DNA sequence: GCCAACGTTGGC
DNA sequence: GCCAACGTTGGC
């Protein structure tokens, strides 16, 4: 396993958990991911990996801040909590289904980078970039070093 | 609030 | 293993 720093993008609905919330709490367990592809990406994350914090389902969806991976993947406790909206009756402590990572606040962007602006750079970012791929709803995705640099140059 | 796109579930 | 039904995501 390489120890080179990698990059990711993680979506959150700001009414649920925003970059300001992350700034306030410092570090947050990324609960609630219930998609296997997204989960598998989290399992690949290493401490110190860069995270683009994306606001979805909001007036101006886009990238609003930067975080970093503070703890590698471990079972998401909400899958065991009956009262949680993330409860999964098929998950057991012996065989958990869902993992999460801890994300630590790094900084807010000087200005948000709106999705429609990101779309304008599709050529440079690549058609395969899940964020701008038609119909893609993936909430955790890898970002290449080149994409990371390109996106932050729009700040 | 609408709805297209997608993922999951469950009957067969 | 197929696929219709259903639930969710997330832009608009």
UniProtKB/TrEMBL annotation:
Gene3D superfamilies in the cross-refs: ph1033 like domains (3.10.590.10)
Domain of life: Bacteria
Annotated ranges, domain EVE: 6-153
Coiled-coil residue spans: none
Protein name, as recorded: EVE domain-containing protein
A Pfam family reported for this protein in Swiss-Prot or TrEMBL: EVE
């Amino acid at each position: 396993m390489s120890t080179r720093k990698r990059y990711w993008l993680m979506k959150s609905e700001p009414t649920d958990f925003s970059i300001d919330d992350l700034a306030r709490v410092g570090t947050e367990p990324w609960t609630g991911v219930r998609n296997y592809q997204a989960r598998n990406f989290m399992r690949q994350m290493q401490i110190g990996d860069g995270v683009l914090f994306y606001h979805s389902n909001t007036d101006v969806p886009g990238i609003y801040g930067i975080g970093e991976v503070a703890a590698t993947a471990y079972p998401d406790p909400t899958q065991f909590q009956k009262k949680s909206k993330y409860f999964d009756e098929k998950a057991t402590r012996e065989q958990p289904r869902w993992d999460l990572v801890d994300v630590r606040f790094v900084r807010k962007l000087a200005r948000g980078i709106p999705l429609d602006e990101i779309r304008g750079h599709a050529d440079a970012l690549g058609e395969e970039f899940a964020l701008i791929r038609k119909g893609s709803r993936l909430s955790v995705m890898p970002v290449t070093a080149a994409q990371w640099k390109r996106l932050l140059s729009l700040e």
